[in-house]
Structures are given as C-alpha cells and as structure tokens.
Amino acid sequence: MKVYGHPMSICTRKVLTTLLEKGHEAQFVLVDLGKGEQKHPAHLARHPFGVVPAFEDDDGFVLYESRAIIRYLDRKLPGASLTPSQPHAYGLMEQFIGVEQSYFSPAAFKVIWERVFKPHMGGGAADEARVQEGRAGVDKVFGILEPMLAKQPYLAGDSFSLADVSWMPELEFLVAAGEQGLFDKHPSVAAWWKRIGGRPSWKKVAHG
Ligand SMILES: N[C@@H](CCC(=O)N[C@@H](CS)C(=O)NCC(=O)O)C(=O)O
C-alpha cells in the first residue's frame, strides 16, 4: 500500500493514524506541498483535484478523499474495527464525521491557517478577524460536544472509532495555534482530547 501525502497535512494524518491503529504498514510517498507537487501531472493522475492524500492499494486500486480512504482501510484491513457494528453507535460515528467536515474543520482551519501554516509559509501577519471568526465557530462546536462527552468517552459512544480519528489532526493544530483556552472552557472536550491524543498511533503521527 502507498500513501501519497505530506506529514503536516491534516487529511494525510487521518490516513496515517488509521493505518497505525490497524497495525498496518504502508509506504509513505512525500508530495511536497511547499514545492506545489500536488499540482504536478503525476499526482493529478492519482488525485484530479490536486490535493493530498491519495492512496494506492497493492492491487493498483487508487482512492482519494481522506474520509473515504480511512473507511476503506478499516473495512479492508484486519485488526480491531474502528467502525461500530451497533446501529446507534454507527450512526453517531457517521454523524460526527459529518460534523467534523461541515462545521468543525472550516472553523478550526481559519485559526490553524492564520496561526500555524501562514507564518510557516512566510505569509505575513495573521488576519485577526479571521482568527476570531474561526475561534467562535470552534467554541460553538465544542459547546455542542461538551454535554455529550460528559456522558460518554468517545464520539460514537463507548469505543474509539473513525469519528475520533477524523478530529485528531485539527485538535492537535488548535493547541499548537495557542488555543488551549478553548479546551479549558469545555472540560469534557479537553478530557476527550487528552484521552485520544495520548494514543500511541497519534503520538507517532504527530511527534514521530
Ligand atoms: N477533502 C479532502 C481535502 C484535501 C486537502 O485539502 N488537502 C490539503 C492538505 S490537508 C492540500 O493538499 N492542500 C494543498 C492545496 O490545496 O494545494 C480530503 O479530505 O482528502
């Protein structure tokens, strides 16, 4: 198996975490975003939208979109399932993958871009209005998660699932962006992040 991506990419990190959770090794092929390699013809042949990650299975099957890839890996690979079989838990997992994509990620990315990626790329001063907008969006999402995570340890219920995996990269970058205060305001969200962020898979993806 091959993963084409970048180690700092939020979406690539979801795929790498899933592979580690499943105990499976894949070849990592760097697509250097700093050099614009995601727009080169060789990568566009794998991912027509010119972003990362892309994935290639041993039989040559190619897939893109991080959330599709993690569902595929969980279904295909042996090891503990990251998809609950109980219908309510399954529904919650899908709901929170959707919440991450539709509400959390757009808000969190505003903060992460302005505070982490933009300075890293020499993009100049942060747009503080955009940071505030993103912060308000994250605060709203955390406020919705808070009462639920006060009653259950993971997004889908009692067990860790692909839903938790899909939130991990942005949670880590929010802390790196100096937003620990947003977690402190929502103690059950903070406890959940501590629980999932302490998993060996995530520690390896984020810190090597
Ligand atoms: N919906 C896609 C998003 C992919 C995406 O936006 N990837 C970013 C890195 S996390 C990227 O390649 N950015 C480079 C660019 O936009 O040119 C997924 O989940 O895989």
TrEMBL record:
GO terms for molecular function: glutathione binding; glutathione transferase activity. The keyword Transferase applies. This is glutathione transferase. The keyword Manganese does not apply. SUPFAM superfamilies: GST C-terminal domain-like, Thioredoxin-like. GO terms for cellular component: cytoplasm. It comes from Myxococcus llanfairpwllgwyngyllgogerychwyrndrobwllllantysiliogogogochensis. Keywords: Transferase. Its EC number is 2.5.1.18. It holds the Pfam family GST_N. Transmembrane segments: none annotated.
